[in-house]
Specification:
The protein has 290 residues and is of the alpha/beta class. It folds into two domains: 2-126, FAD/NAD(P)-binding domain (3-Layer(bba) Sandwich), CATH 3.50.50; 138-287, FAD/NAD(P)-binding domain. Helix content is 22%, strand content 25%.
Length: 290
C-alpha cells in the first residue's frame, strides 16, 4: 500500500487548483485521474461549446489567461490546452489513467482503491466534477425505444444525430445553445422550457459578467445571500460565449423558428406532454439535464 497525506481525485481545473494549494503548503499528495488531464473536457463536451465567461475571468491559483483576446471566450480545445498547461507549469503529481474504484474510512484516514494500486491518505479531496453524471429525469423511461436519447455530455454535433426533428428539454445555457445549433443545421427543433434565467450578453458595451463583477456579486459570500437554498437551485443563465456579443434567449430562438413549449411533465404512449400543449415525440429526443 502506498502512503501520502492527501489524495485528490480528478485532474481537471478544480483538482489541479487543489494540488497547487497543497504544494504551496508543502503537503505531500497525489492527483489520481481516470484518463488524461482535463479528461472530461476532452471527451464529454460538444464540438462548438465555448465558455460562458470572458477570457479575462479565466483564473486559477497562480495562473491566469495569457492570450491576446481578453474579451473572447475559450472553446473546448482551448480549455484543454489551458488546463494541461497549468498541470505542467505547476508540476502537479498526476497519475493519469488511474481509476478510483472505492474510498473507505480507515484508521487515521482513508484507503483509496484504484485499478492500479491502493493508497492510504489522511485526507481525500473529491474533485471529479459536479456534473460527471447527467441528471436525467425519471420520465425518460417512457420514451419509446426507437427514439435516441442524449445528454449534453454525449451530444457532439447535429451531424451525429439521426434524421428528423429534435426535442430539447431544458432552457438553461446548454439547452439554448444546443437548440440554436440544431435549428441552424436545418432541423425542426422544439424546446421544452421550465424555469430559466434570462440575461443579456452585454450591457452598455460591456459583458454582463463585467457588471456582475463590478457591482460585487462575484465576491458575495454565501452567508450574505438572503436565500441560499434558492440561489443554489437556480438554473444557469441563458448565455452563449460569442465574439459578437450575441444574446441568445427564448425571444431570439423563437424568431429563428424554434418552437417553444412548456415544461416537459410526462410521456404517455410515445407522446411528450407539457402544461401548454402536447406534441408527438416520434422523433430523436435530446434530454438536457440540469
Amino acid at each position: 500500500m502506498l502512503n501520502t497525506t492527501a489524495v485528490v481525485v480528478g485532474a481537471g481545473h478544480c483538482g489541479l487548483a487543489m494540488s497547487y494549494c497543497l504544494a504551496e503548503r508543502s503537503i505531500d499528495h497525489v492527483v489520481l485521474e481516470r484518463g488524461e488531464v482535463a479528461e472530461s473536457w476532452r471527451t464529454q463536451r460538444w464540438d462548438s461549446l465555448r465558455l460562458l465567461t470572458p477570457n479575462w475571468m479565466t483564473r486559477l491559483p497562480g495562473y491566469s489567461y495569457r492570450g491576446d483576446d481578453p474579451d473572447g471566450y475559450l472553446g473546448t480545445a482551448d480549455v484543454v490546452q489551458l488546463i494541461a498547461g497549468y498541470a505542467k507549469e505547476t508540476a502537479a503529481p498526476v497519475r493519469a489513467n488511474t481509476t478510483v474504484t472505492s474510498v473507505r474510512p480507515a484508521r487515521g484516514g482513508y484507503v483509496v482503491q484504484t485499478d492500479q494500486d491502493v493508497w492510504h491518505a489522511r485526507a481525500v479531496v473529491l474533485a471529479a466534477g459536479a456534473s460527471t453524471v447527467a441528471n436525467v429525469p425519471a420520465l425518460h423511461r417512457g420514451v419509446p425505444a426507437d427514439i435516441a436519447q442524449l445528454t449534453p455530455d454525449t451530444y457532439r454535433n447535429p451531424g451525429r444525430l439521426a434524421e428528423g426533428g429534435v426535442l430539447v428539454v431544458g432552457a438553461s445555457a446548454s439547452g439554448i445553445q444546443i437548440a440554436g445549433e440544431l435549428h441552424r443545421s436545418g432541423r425542426d427543433v422544439t424546446l421544452a422550457v421550465g424555469e430559466h434565467v434570462r440575461m443579456p450578453r452585454t450591457y452598455r458595451g460591456r459583458d454582463i459578467l463585467w457588471w456582475m463583477d463590478a457591482c460585487g456579486l462575484m465576491g458575495q459570500r454565501y452567508d450574505e445571500i438572503p436565500d441560499l437554498a434558492r440561489a443554489r437551485s437556480l438554473p444557469s443563465m441563458q448565455l452563449v460565449g460569442s465574439d459578437q456579443g450575441i444574446t441568445v434567449d427564448l425571444n431570439s430562438l423563437s424568431r429563428l423558428g424554434v418552437q417553444l413549449v412548456g415544461r416537459l411533465v410526462g410521456l404517455r404512449d410515445g407522446i411528450a406532454w407539457s402544461p401548454r400543449r402536447h406534441r408527438a415525440a416520434r422523433r430523436p429526443l435530446t434530454v438536457e439535464a440540469h
